[in-house]
Amino acid sequence: MLQGFAGMETTGHETDAVLIAIGVLIIIVAAFGCFGAWKESPKLLYIFAGCLIIIILLELSVGIAAAALRPQIEGTMKTQLRASFIKNKSTREEDSVYREFWDRVQSSLECCGVTGPENYGASEPRLKPSFSCCPPDNSDEVDEIKRSDCLSMEKYYKEGCEDKVLSTVHSAGLSVIVCGILFCFLEIAGIVLALWLAHSIKTEGKGRETA
């Protein structure tokens, strides 16, 4: 999402690799818990609990790092958004990706420009707001007439995209934080149950030896 809102082309391969790695890790960790419970092996259950503790520590470290880097990430996003907006105003064919990016952002987030539609005329080349700044028009008129009416009557969106992009990223980040907290509680429950089961198995084993 950060790469996409910075006007960068994203392939998704990095995300796929991370998800695959996480999936493999989850299978390995879960295997220790399953086989430990099935074979009644305290060692495997202790390994399972230890892996969960490591995962929780990693989650906490990532959360702390993300909180510490948040101002830097926001500053970088603002810089890249403004740089991509300048390229969006370019007429060069190689900059068409930035025009497509801004058209997509402005139409989906219902905003115009970085801080407002005045950004289009603030620096060279001085342009009128893009057609993507205009609200959807379901009339039967051709696009040229729709755009002309929108610009002449100033129907285009008045809010800038910078704040809306940051708000969208913050909302996504909040969802990740909530999910992370829920997973932490589940992992803590898994640690407690694994240790309890391992202790019960060891206690039962000693009881059999005594008997």
UniProtKB/TrEMBL annotation:
GO cellular component, one term: plasma membrane
UniProt keyword Membrane present: yes
Keywords: Disulfide bond, Membrane, Transmembrane, Transmembrane helix
Localization of this protein: Membrane
Disulfide bonds, paired cysteine numbers: C112-C134
Transmembrane segments: 17-38, 45-69, 172-198
Signal peptide residue numbers: none
Entries under CDD domains matching the protein: tetraspanin_LEL (cd03127)
Domain of life: Eukaryota
Topology in the lipid bilayer: Multi-pass membrane protein
One Pfam assignment: Tetraspanin
Family note: Belongs to the tetraspanin (TM4SF) family.
Descriptive protein name: Tetraspanin
Record organism: Papilio xuthus (Asian swallowtail butterfly)
